Amino acid sequence: MRQKIIVGNWKMHGTLADAHSYVKTLLPYLQSIEGKRVLLAVPFTALSRMAEWCSGSSVELGVQNIFDQEKGPFTGEISAFMAQDAGARFTLIGHSERRKIFHETDEWIHRKVVRALSCLQPIVCVGETLEERDTGKANEVIRKQIIGALHGLSMQEACRIILAYEPVWAIGTGMNATAEIANAMHKHCRSVIWELFSEEVSNKVHILYGGSVKPDNMESFVHQESIDGVLVGGASLDPSQFIQMIRHI
Ligand code: PGA
Known about the structure:
Blueprint: E1 4-9, H1 16-30, E2 36-41, H2 44-54, E3 60-63, H3 80-85, E4 90-93, H4 96-101, H5 106-116, E5 121-126, H6 130-134, H7 138-150, H8 155-159, E6 162-165, H9 179-196, H10 199-204, E7 206-210, H11 218-222, E8 229-232, H12 239-248
The protein binds 2-phosphoglycolic acid (PGA).
């Protein structure tokens, strides 16, 4: 049985004061939670203070992106090691907003995955656009993104990956995929992981669904056999909504 995981992705939101008041609401609730992983991908600016505030709690902190080098003349970038040093335990990689706005390619995402594996757990995001879905290319696109990101990893490394299937047309649009569409795509993701590594790895890798997940639709996703949890953007910004979702995962 794979453990259930919920990840909140704050994106570019929140001051330190917002972050502090968020954890004051969230942490007391987490004391009664067992057997699920609660992760928060916070802005770099909040990370080290969040690490202090969350120390001793079960919440795992991470970042939303890293650069693919360890250090050097890369103005404005942050390495996996620096994120770890500031309190991160995981990083999102290849979120569709980064693929689209910052032109991240599968090759670049692969280099970030390799770099992250030295000190952080990578959460690799994949997803097709509406046009790709409408023209019957969704499976092929997802296969290409998974192979592009994960090829060449050892079995052991592959088992540490969390994959997030986030259809681009469902992110921030309020138009979530149906649980059946998501489950079918998760099965497809597992078959690609099997093809790349082995059946054992494909059974071990956690695969999350993301895209307009909210308290009132999340149960339908987590009841699907192939869905191990959710990656939540907008609805994770409100701690009481996030708590409702943790409860139902
Ligand atoms: P959303 O974002 O929940 O606001 O659709 C999900 C994500 O971008 O990870």
